[in-house]
Amino acid sequence: MCLFLFYFIPRFADVVDYSDLILPTESSGATLYPPVFRPKGPKPGPPRNVSIAEVKNGFVISWQAPLERAHLVRYYVINYKTDGIWRTLNKAQIRAEDTHYLVKSLVGGRTYYFRVVAYSLKSFENSEEIKFPVPARVKHKAITAGVVGGLLFFVVAIILSVCAVKICNKRKRRKHEKAYNMVACRITDARNGGQIPGTSQVPLKKITGEELASC
């Protein structure tokens, strides 16, 4: 006979009122709200007029706050997909007062779908989906930027190499000039009857008449 032992984990009661809770904050001071897994209660209206525009350093997704129950919005989340799976675009929660987000990593030639989700404390509401085909020139623009960056790095490396060679040659030339000047000074001193540095003169010994006769 087999006995099976079941463990029943009690379910905790849902948090109804967040006003008495102390929520964590980011380094910037923004409040981090807990994720909503089971929506319940009043929810904000859907974000409106979602659009995307190309700028110098990427693409900006913009939207407008909900017309209905906008005061319930605590933060926004942007979802995107290129196939059937929705993914989260922003890493951190977008504050309720911010209604735009900069994207830099869209791939040229690919079609994206976006939607903005407005979150309250206990529920959320999605905006309408928008379709955005990224121009193919974005890919070529990225490739061109990479090529230009590589060429600039190569040019800078050549300039630094030339400067290093010139500095080494200048030091060698100074070293040779210094050695030549030292030799020239010694020769000049010798011609003028001076003593050449580094040589020692032995004094001559006087020979008397007796020593000369004995030789």
TrEMBL record:
<feature type="domain" description="Fibronectin type-III">
    <location>
        <begin position="46"/>
        <end position="137"/>
    </location>
</feature>
<dbReference type="Pfam" id="PF00041">
    <property type="entry name" value="fn3"/>
</dbReference>
<feature type="transmembrane region" description="Helical">
    <location>
        <begin position="142"/>
        <end position="165"/>
    </location>
</feature>
<keyword id="KW-0472">Membrane</keyword>
<keyword id="KW-1133">Transmembrane helix</keyword>
<keyword id="KW-0812">Transmembrane</keyword>
<dbReference type="InterPro" id="IPR036116">
    <property type="entry name" value="FN3_sf"/>
</dbReference>
<protein>
    <recommendedName>
        <fullName>Fibronectin type-III domain-containing protein</fullName>
    </recommendedName>
</protein>
<dbReference type="InterPro" id="IPR003961">
    <property type="entry name" value="FN3_dom"/>
</dbReference>
<dbReference type="InterPro" id="IPR013783">
    <property type="entry name" value="Ig-like_fold"/>
</dbReference>
